[in-house]
Amino acid sequence: MSDPKTAHAPRRASAAATLVAACAVLAGALVACEIAAGLFRPWNDARLAPAAGLLHGYGLYVGPGETGPLWSWIYGPVGPFAYLPAAWLPTPATAVAAGLVWTAALVLGSGRAL
């Protein structure tokens, strides 16, 4: 006769695996919805503009007496350099979409190999 404490263990493990899979699908759907909604947020293209400007030969910072675009970028250069691959894409919409996917990968994959 089986032990009553372990008789339901396979069923519990199966239920736990199903719950984990359902949560993973839901989390993936939420990330996909946020990426899709991000295409319509006005600041995403402005945040990608410094990376696109670097590709066109502009600097990130304009000093006294210099000419060039005034970005809304007041931080260090890591952000624009991180988004250079997205800025290489041919249209602004695809660049913003790639930037959103890259952001999700950086945020959700931080601390782990992507």
Number of domains: 2
Radius of gyration, in angstroms, nearest whole number: 22 Å
Which spans have pLDDT < 50 for at least 5 consecutive residues?
none
The ordered H/E elements are: HHHHH
Strand pairing plus helix content: what structural class?
mainly alpha
- Largest sheet entry: none
Head-to-tail CA distance between termini: 48 Å
Q: Roughly what is the average pLDDT, rounded to an integer?
A: 85
The count of DSSP E runs of length 2 or more, i.e. the number of strands, is: 0
Shape: elongated
Summed up, the helix count is 5
Binned, the helix content reads 55-70%
Strand content: under 5%
Describe this structure in words.
This protein has five helices and no strands. By secondary structure, it is mainly α. The protein has two domains: 1-38; 42-114, no CATH class. Helix 1 (9-38) packs antiparallel against helix 5. It is elongated and about 80 Å long. The termini are far apart.
